[in-house]
Amino acid sequence: MYQKKIANTLACGSVLTKEVLHGKWKSTLLACIAQGIQRPSAMQRSIPGATRRVLNVQLSELEQHGLVGKTIFPELPPKVEYHLTDLGRSLLPVIEVMEQWGNAHRTELEQVLTVSLAEMPG
Q: Which residue windows are coiled coil (predicted)?
């Protein structure tokens, strides 16, 4: 597993928030679960750009951070469902504000991000 060379100081609340939401799909996964999408296969269908492996890794990290809980049903084939914990539900207003901000500044951000991506060495 990747180890950061410089450890984050966790004294700042925004650093703590970024640490638990760090990952391309974590906020999207939390929003999906909040909307009632609980099965990993349904999450993958609702996030077509994400691979199954990445979603599983990020769901596992969300579980380790206490934001989601996982229920494994004892049947064949195994059935797994995720649910938000109280801590995970408390993040939903933050995710909603991030969504609103992105939508409010979409035109400007898409232009800047498109240029930034085009300039990256490939």
A: none
